[in-house]
Amino acid sequence: MEKVYTSAEVGTKNGARQSWLARWMPSRTNQRRYLLFLLLICPAFILRIVTAAYPIFQTIQLSFTNTDLINGTNKFVGLRNYQSILTDYGVRGALSFTTILVVASTALDLILGMLIALLLNAAFRGRGFARTINLIPWAVPTIVAGYVFRWLLDDQFGLLTTWVYQLIGIHLVVFISEFSARLVTVLAYVWKDAPFIAVIFLAGLQGVPVDLYDAAKVDGANAWHRFWSVTVPLIMPLSITMGLFRLLWSLGSFDLVYGLTQGGPGVSTSVLALQVFRTGIMFFKFGMASAISVVLLIFVAVIGLIGLWLFRRSEVSY
Amino acid sequence: MNLSSVFRSFKANSFIIYLGFVVFTIIVLTPVYWMTRSAFAVASDLYKTPLIYFPKPSLVNFNMLMQQVPLFQYVRNSLLFALATTTATLLVSFMAAYAFARIRFPGSGILMWVLVLSTALPDIGTIVPLYQILKNMHLLDTIAGITLILCSALAPFTVWALISFIKQIPYEIEEAAIIDGASLPRIFWHILLPVTLPGLVTMGLINFINAWNNLLYPLSFTTSNTSKTLSVAITEIYNSYSPYGKPWELIMTVGVAMTIPIVVLVMFSQRAIIRGLVSGAIK
What we know:
Largest sheet of chain B: none
CATH topology of the largest domain in chain B: MetI-like fold
Mean pLDDT of chain A: 84
CATH superfamily of the largest domain in chain B: MetI-like
Number of strands of chain B: 0
Strand content of chain A: under 5%
Shape of chain B: globular
Order of helices and strands of chain B: HHHHHHHHHHHHHH
Mean pLDDT of chain B: 88
Helix content of chain B: over 70%
Shape of chain A: globular
CATH architecture of the largest domain in chain A: Orthogonal Bundle
Oligomer: heterodimer
CATH superfamily of the largest domain in chain A: MetI-like
Structural class of chain A: mainly alpha
Strand content of chain B: under 5%
Largest sheet of chain A: none
Number of strands of chain A: 0
Number of domains of chain B: 2
Number of helices of chain A: 15
């Protein structure tokens, strides 16, 4: 750590000229330094308190009421919202697809993200090009990606449907069946997110010390062995952190589904976030929407705890 | 170096790599190609079989779009929203990041973690109370309102990334200025800003893209043309037609208008952006 001057020292060093700031910043015990710290962090904290912490508590509170802007009700109703969630068609569909989406897209994101990172790290002509276009899926607005995939899969004039027909002679009508709509949604999520994961993995790969590979090579490990026993353990904590953050972000948003399937057919590709939006912002059933939000928060908390546990287990030192 | 040496020992490794490269390129670029092709074409060329892969280029869709919606106003709103969010987020985050990186304060580590972990709260979980809060503040249906909310959502990640940028700068530079009796604004403008500029540009780019692409807040909190963004406009065009006759040429045209500026930005600044994404994720 840098040497800390007391105000007296600064004063003597600099003769008569001593700014008010000099008395603030470097002194060890000064209350004024604390004041400066608090002043600097307070805008960020006020923002977070007003638009995140306080609203979360309000969400929890609202979830026990039947607040509804259209009917004008706002009474305490205990757990009734939660009871109706259990039987609500939309929420149940959203709950099951959210679970599927979270598991499937995270697994595919990590696997494909790793493969892309290996590709981007390999030495070949065109690597610069590959690294550049790798950022495109991340940069394309999610809602636009949703619509583009919908149009790519149009049953009459879509490019992908045409290719599938030309290749195997099957005429795809993707958005009619639950299975294909869900599959396509998961794959579109992966198209959007895997390249981002790859960016992080690539940085991780570049940080793995070369001598570890050399040591493994001397011990007679083949390429596959070296990958599994050197690379994978070393970048495991990073993968888990990334997977986790990705998960939590995608749980809170519905952009892709909103563009691609609008939750359909029926509610088979709806996600909890979309259900909150529909119930709360489109139909103004604030109480009910808040209860769904709380379910989502519990979901997030469970995933966060599992992630933390995995992270703790996977930490290695070298 | 590292993994490339792993690959080198694979037999036929270059074949696998090039195959992977080709597949990767096709998968990444196909949607982009399809969108661009559909935007710069005459509508009738899109609804023909067999498909026309390279229709005659045309800007007719942009004209159509401008007759139907106030496109320039939406572009203006999106730009204003993105620029305001970027500026506000950088300002707020830089102050906090500087405090966390440089000033010793009991419990500052805990405060930092509270701030950073608050990003884990899903944005949608607060949408209903936020609606009421904005309404009470008379900020519903204003760009200022959505800017405020998104700024708050982006700040934790920005603080986190900026801390690692600031910590890479030797403290001696500021220390010398402080001892010389420079004022706080002077230290900021002449000493801190030049050295942290790369970090600020990086986080500025990332936040700009995030804001430009954001759908949730404009969709939830804006209703009139004076505050709606492009992301809302594209959903409205889609929703205003029947399921069996979507005007894909118009939807793709808005898509292109939203995507091209961002993709160009990314192409020119990919190194800076990657540095930012990584600095937030690692460490």
